[in-house]
User: Fold these one by one.
Assistant:
Number 1:
Amino acid sequence: MSRFDATRYPAAPLVALSNRQWPDRRLEKAPRWVSVDLRDGNQALLEPMSVAQKRRLWKLLIEVGFKEIEVGFPAASQPDFDFVRWLIEERQIPDDVSIQVLVQARKALIERTFAALEGAPRAIVHLYNSTSPVQRERVFGLDCEGVKAIAVRGAQWVKDEALRHPDTDWRFQYSPESFTHTEMDFAVVICEAVLDVWQPTPERPVIINLPSTVEAASPNVFADQIEYFATHIDRRDSLVLSVHTHNDRGGAVASAELALLAGAERVEGTLLGNGERTGNMDIVTLGFNLYSQGIDPELDLSNPARIVRTVSECTSLPVHPRHPWVGELVYTAFSGSHQDAIRKCLAQQREDEPWQVAYLPIDPRDIGRDYQAVIRVNSQSGKGGVAFVLERDHGLRLPRWMQIQLAAHVQEESERRGGEVEASRIRLLFEEQFLPAAQTPRVSAYHLDQTGGVQRLQVRLEATEKPLEGQGEGVLDAFIDAINRQDGPRVDVLDYSEHALESGADAHAVAYVQLAVNGQPQAGAAIARDTLSAALQAVLSAYSRAA
């Protein structure tokens, strides 16, 4: 029985929508995409991006094909202000791209925002204020009229500032922050009050952005909220309905997808889902979701390896190997039955027919992958690919902790060489990093004696006269005892595994060991005629490397 007191969390209210239409609709085209990587994504980082990282990510966003990019919160951050000025003064904004900036409904911040945007050819000013009951009552101490007044004043200040800068093509956007926790009728009322100030037309529409600032319910409830808003707001033909979903419940992509069915036309999100708390809506995932249903996402996602690399390096955040569509292991089948099914389907798949391959919802070649990518290792490869190659070609079954260490060295090698690392080179890297080095002492002989459940071990090393002697419950325990009797660092065994390299009486054995040498982990491995020799030599390899 759960220890949680679930009564503390009431279920989200349902929307009074008796004739909902969205469940019977089908998506037919991509939305207007808005990247908020440089604003929402950046403010969620432990260490915000440097100027160089922002410029690099901006370049990627342009190349991917975004036409609207939220570039910062210039009134709240000097680095954001400076980055906006760099974009404008250095003419970095293509003619078909609009930058967007966020600002609260406060006069001084709005004036500062327009100062940052001075000289921009076109820009979207994104105004917001919180509207939910908990924000109204516990944060601002206001009623609905008081919160509506904040939005109306902010909208007027934005309009007045825009009139002072007529050379820029201005677009306005308003977000009732915490929309998903706001009463639907009040959300409509406050947005209509903002529209009354801005007076949009079908030719000059206003963007109304409805965020799930904190994801409050299942995606179908969010879709109901969007459809309710879309069917109750005035001047629907004079606004663009946008959504900005977060992933607190794990449904950001689903919520955005269903919101499009419910009437939204525009989606804000980030590449690979970086964002506050559990993240923003993942544009890459939604883009490939559309593509897998025969819809052109209208973004160039054909090189996800570059997207993953750039975003990871700019944000210092890794991408999970099981990340939808672009994770490094997404098109890798470890199950034998999966591999067999894929192989048989690929053998029958024709170029002139719809894609029909078990376990592969899209052709990996469309995004620069293929099924055999698991046996090809480059800078994007992880421990799974490296381990697969070593086992397939060399019979080495590395434990997980050694896979992780070796994968890092393989990645460095790939980056240095600028391409693929072949299986033979991976084997050499394994030998260089873990097998006994030239200076490692070699076991020349050993003697094991067991009396009363205690293992007594004597090991003689090459070029030494006095053997090492120790005792313990097992061979490794005894050998570690022998080492610890010497005048050197303290040694403990953290992990150990072994296996035969071949079958038959003449098979070699390989041993893998992870030691703690003075508390610091150190790995080693060895190959020998028997498992005991391999184990002893693997310990010496790790110990010698630590020394």
Number 2:
Amino acid sequence: MSGFDYVIIGGGSAGCVAAGRLAADGRRRVLLLEAGDPAARNPETLRADGYREAFINPRLMYERFSTPQPGCGGRSIFLGTGRGLGGSGSINAMVYLRGSRADYREWATPGWSWEAVAADFEGLEAALDLHQRPPTEFTEACVLAAEHAGFHRLEDLDGGALVGGLGYERMNFSGARRRSSYVAFVEPLMHRGNLVVETGARVQQILFDERRRAVGVRYTIGEAVRVATVRREVVLAAGALESPKLLMLSGIGRQEELRRHGIPAVVEARAVGAGLRDHPNVTLFFRSQAAVDCDYPQIYGFHRVNPASPLPPDQADTCFVMYPARSSMREATMRMLPTMALSPRLYRTTPLPALLRAAVRAGFAAPGARGFVERLYGIVVILGKPRSRGSLRLASTDAAAPAIIDPAYFDDPEDMETMLRGVALARQIAAAPPLRRFGSRELLPGAQSRSQAALRAFIRRQAMTTYHFASTCRMGEDAGAVVDARLRVRGVQGLRIADASVMPGVPVSALNAPSMMIGWRVARFLAEEEGEDGDVKALS
């Protein structure tokens, strides 16, 4: 395929925003390449209540495992991410959070402060048509209990000041329909001839000419090998676990890593795949006296639980989510139990995962199970500002092979200290009168787990990813940064990265909203630079 102004690699949260924005006025020819399915094949990705089914649909998630994690008792942790149009934003619980003012100050990159990105967030939010879920008896009990434990109610979680705040987050749904980046930005343009969407497209390599300018993309659909040529630029938006892998496969990375796989070097970029950050979490479970009257995790709180941390005073270090088990407990167990009970080898090569999922399904169908689940809720404790830094490197030159991923959970001892303090604060919330009256009998880790040693063991045994991978192709002004402030890959021309991999630090909150904002901005940057050439007016 030839003659595209832009090729966008990755139809996820950021890629769909970038593709839709660039194609909207009809004057640019845009190719969007997505490895997963068209949305119509998995209609649960289009429904607001479909995330339960989407989470257990194997076609909608990359199934990867970490290297064994010493900080998690030697376990290999499941590191799945969404695949298909809309990416993780089509299978998540629709949480929309910008993050805190301090998160963007930490990025220390000109043009990326809280104030600088505010207009981009506002434009994005107008297109998404965000809503809050209404309060319920359970959610109000959670808010009041948190206030007893030292939080204050926040009416707007996107105002920039999060420390000590808790409230109802906005969600990207409208009526019964999910408002993912695909639904908001790409679906309305699918009939347009200037936007070409290829699904089932596995990108093998970004192609460069002798001047180190990106001139095309090689990809496969089934057994067919195709090449798309580009007149202007390639935008890599495959996510923090795929974008660095594709850079390395295309000759951009650490020289020794490229040499190890026989990949001709285009440019040395030592930060590619380095600095990986994620939010590990654990969940404390409680039994209420009556059914929990809430179907979505809609209450989020943020606190600074570790005063010894070197973070600035206005930066929260921990996120708390009030989780009603009825919302997705069965599906979460079906998805996660096999990944935690089996080694990666057994998970990939035996029928045991399917057998375990069938057993879970049968267990939840047993008499009494529904009533038990309806009276169960969790407080999820998320390490929001990890100090540990992981890494990612190639396993092979096969683009379909997962990278070797080491998130280095709890490698820095301060992370465990912060998690311990977060667990203690979660217990304070559950013990406060409003939740105690509602019902808060602790089931996990349980009353017997009181010592610091017992709680450390609980965290190491139960910690899992929150699927918030970032920072593997960081932006910055220094020569070691992979991309500059306008998301251009250093050392080459015609290539930008627009996804969570460019974040110099991981925000304390969920990454879907900041990722979409990055997709919004890259489209604006590209259009502005066209305007400098006198071709096309910049996007507003």
